[in-house]
Design goal:
This protein has 333 residues and is α/β, with parallel strands linked by helices. The protein has helices at 50-54, 129-141, 158-169, 182-190, 205-212, 226-235, 262-266, 283-295, 312-320; strands at 3-9, 23-29, 37-46, 76-82, 92-95, 102-106, 111-113, 149-152, 174-179, 196-199, 217-222, 236-244, 270-273, 303-307, 327-331. The protein has 2 domains: 3-125 and 302-331, Quinone Oxidoreductase, Chain A, domain 1 (Alpha-Beta Complex); 129-277, NAD(P)-binding Rossmann-like Domain (Rossmann fold). It has 9 helices and 15 strands. Strands 3, 4, 5, 6, 7, 14 and 15 form a 7-stranded mixed beta sheet that branches. It has a 6-stranded parallel beta sheet with strand order 10-9-8-11-12-13, with helices on both faces. Helix 2 (129-141) crosses helix 3 (158-169). The model has no long low-confidence stretch (mean pLDDT 95). The structure holds NADP nicotinamide-adenine-dinucleotide phosphate (NAP). Residues 48-50, 130, 133, 154, 156-160, 179-180, 184, 223-224, 245-249, 274-276, 319, 322, 324, 328 line the site of NADP nicotinamide-adenine-dinucleotide phosphate.
Length: 333
């Protein structure tokens, strides 16, 4: 085999808003494998909000930008087709060369996964970077305490749906989530164990949060920024905490003004941003705990899975518009 198929960036979106016209599936030469590398057949790949930032030229994001006329990359999970003494053929590995069907991966850049009898795709979702982000955000950035009342935004999404459930499992007394649309809002309470689900499209999030938590909240897990962050600053109690995870609503002309931050002073609020990769020391305890919760049936791991590389761009664009429940993945098997 000398070539594989991969999604290339054919053009940068001029206004930062990607469309199908900016991508193309093309053949990609498979490089010669050295003894320190693995040939991997990808089975699942992840599409993530941070990839939107990587389509631009700004260096503000926490990974490198995509290059025009080069293949995209991102988290993937695959099976080793040609291995070496360290990682034999047949092993499952997680790595960063997604958006393609086959990849030659440096052994040092591959993490061998023991699926422990759990469906493989969960190792890119609730047991992968998604779940780990939720865990680090709550435990480290948010310093979750027993009895906390917690608000999670984008709560029907990948990180949000796990953050809400983890918060409950780790001792929160009450968890409120927000999501776009009545169906997602009722999924939060009906299936994912949230105490309240707010449909932020049906009413302003500030009003929804006031109604859901008239006495305030202790911790806000922020996936959205903008109006959600302002609503949380207003709802937080004295010495409340914010774990800044992401800002998918990101700017735009209608962004609320920053002067709401005065609330952080008046209420002595701790606001802590975090990047998941800084917290690798928590990985073993995270995997043990989450595998245990899944085994015990205490955790619902939602995912939306598109089929095939030709649908990967649709999966990405749909996720940005809220077309996913739980982790958005593409099956390449
Ligand atoms: N700090 C870190 O290390 C780290 C690591 C991974 C991810 N993240 C961040 O975590 C957040 C969630 O990522 P994810 O992978 O779990 O994605 P996700 O939540 O599964 O998907 C994105 C969701 O965002 C919601 N959304 C889109 N536009 C919105 C808007 N204007 N206002 C409110 N909600 C909007 C949509 O849900 P609705 O239908 O509910 O609108 C959509 O389903 C992102 O901000 C991401 O950048 C941070």
């Amino acid at each position: 085999m000398t070539t594989t198929r991969a999604v290339f960036l054919s053009e940068r979106p001029a206004d930062g808003d990607p469309g199908p016209e900016h991508f193309e599936v093309r053949d990609l030469a498979i490089p010669e494998r050295t003894s320190g590398q693995l040939l991997v057949r990808n089975l699942f790949m992840s599409v993530d909000p941070s990839m939107r930032g990587r389509l631009g030229t700004s260096e503000m994001h926490y990974t490198t930008n995509f290059q025009v006329d080069a293949p995209l990359d991102g988290s993937a999970l695959g099976v080793v087709v040609e291995g070496n003494g360290e990682v034999p053929a047949g092993s499952y590995v997680r790595h960063r060369l997604g958006w393609r069907e086959h990849a030659v991966v440096d052994t040092a850049a591959a993490t061998v996964i023991d699926p422990r009898g759990i469906d493989l795709h969960h190792w890119l979702g609730v047991l992968g970077q998604t779940g780990f982000t939720a865990y680090c955000g709550l435990v480290r950035a948010g310093e979750l305490r027993s009895g906390d009342e917690v608000f999670v935004s984008a709560a029907a999404g990948a990180v949000g749906s796990t953050a809400g459930q983890f918060a409950k499992l780790l001792g929160a007394s009450r968890v409120i989530g927000s999501a776009g649309g009545a169906e997602k809002a009722s999924l939060l309470t009906g299936r994912l164990g949230f105490d309240v689900g707010i449909d932020y499209r049906a009413q302003p999030i500030g009003a929804g949060l006031r109604e859901a938590a008239p006495d305030g909240i202790d911790l806000y897990f922020d996936n959205v920024g903008g109006d959600h962050l302002v609503a949380a600053l207003t709802a937080l109690r004295l010495r409340g905490r914010i774990a800044l995870c992401g800002m998918i609503s990101n700017g735009g002309p209608d962004s609320p003004p920053i002067d709401h931050l005065m609330n952080a002073i008046l209420k002595r609020i701790t606001i802590r941003g975090f990047i998941v990769r800084d917290h690798e020391d928590l990985r073993p305890e995270f995997e043990d705990r989450v595998a245990g919760w899944l085994d015990a049936g205490e955790l619902v791991a939602e995912s939306t899975i598109y089929d095939g590389l030709d649908n990967a761009v649709d999966a990405f664009l749909s996720m940005l518009r809220g077309g996913n429940v739980g982790k958005m993945l593409v099956g390449l098997g």
